Amino acid sequence: MFSKGPSRPLPGLVGRAGEFDLQTSAKTLQPLEPLAEGYCLRSSCVRTRQLAKMDDRGPLTDLWWDIHRLKHNSRRVDHPCQLPPQLMYRLISVFTEPGEIILDCFNGAGTTTLTAHQLNRQYIGIEMSEKYHEITEARHREILEGLDPFRKAKRKLTEKNSSVERMPEQTYEVPKKTLQLEVRRVAKMLGRLPNRDEMIEHAKYPIKYYDEYFVSWGEVCAAARHDGMSEERNNGQQPEPITKQLSLFEQQRNAG
Fold it and tell me: What is the CATH number of domain 11-144?
């Protein structure tokens, strides 16, 4: 992005990013060929599209809607604000070539250096916390042992980036997604987000599930605030052309 003298074309846009073939990575993850807007990331949805031979890829622009925060504790280590590895796979693939050096001056639990390690880049990570440094070193050893440092695992977590207490581990009689979709149904019926009393009156499920399974009413209503993902976009029509916020990527392609 910044250089002394003439800049070079971005390696990821001119075919110099190297191969990306992590056996443990999500099937949707192709750093330089992102999912098009609106496609579901769930493995079941991916399989359905693959069987149907659907092209679910979109152009690589400066708007990335296929990368999300780490939502599930099974993907976390004991650090309060971890980067999603998918973000770093894309950044490293776009901006660097194999063998080049990646520096993170605040390396935390190691997402930057771990993804650099996986992508055959050299790396330097700086971290003042001995605890996080030890977590990172252990995760780098996992890569050498053939393990995915970002795999799902059951870990004891103590650190949080929110003051809200963690919900106790429990078995759900009704899936949380089902309960949230019921909120969406009631919201469409009312023309607005329902409050707790309105869910008692109109919902199919007892209010106790909402009280016991969610940390706040905001989380209860989260799924009703948007239309969600769908495999059928624009009623089967081709999406409108994407308007880029910046012309950076197009300029780099032209330069390449």
Answer: 3.40.50.150
